[in-house]
Amino acid sequence: xxxxxxxxxxxxxxxxxxxxxxxxxxxxxxxxxxxxxxxxxxxxxxxxxxxxxxxxxxxxxxxxxxxxxxxxxxxxxxxxxxxxxxxxxxxxxxxxxxxxxxxxxxxxxxxxxxxxxxxxxxxxxxxxxxxxxxxxxxxxxxxxxxxxxxxxxxx
Length: 155
What we know:
With 155 residues, the protein is an all-beta fold. The chain is built from no helices and 13 strands. The chain has strands at residues 2-4, 7-13, 22-27, 30-37, 40-46, 51-57, 66-72, 76-83, 93-97, 102-105, 111-122, 133-135, 140-148. The chain has a six-stranded antiparallel β-sheet with strand order 1-5-6-7-8-12, with no helix packed on it. Strands 9-10-11-13 form a four-stranded antiparallel β-sheet, with no helix packed on it. The relative contact order is 0.16. The model has no long low-confidence stretch (mean pLDDT 85).
């Protein structure tokens, strides 16, 4: 895995009271047609030749959340995970990338870690993620998320 600067966003829909802004992912100056939620690209990490993890925010003062999107250039959005909660705010910082994981800080002093898998893993609907992690309904996941120490302030 490695952090890359070859990805940018082009906003295609403004945020509303009920939904995040939507942006088209641009890779090396070419539109991919992949639409992700969010309007600010905090960072992009290349997982392999065709997969990227994007860290996205919406620039909402006092209630910022982090959207993490795993995209496949050939297959579109594979998974979306949101980190945060109402009335909680954080700033994305301290990104570090190793061969098999991504580490960063977002809320409090917790160190968040993401690992990816090539094939989807079974996801239990309750209790399999740290507090503050929200996933869309479903029984599979490609991103495994942990926090050290576990965030206690998020409810």
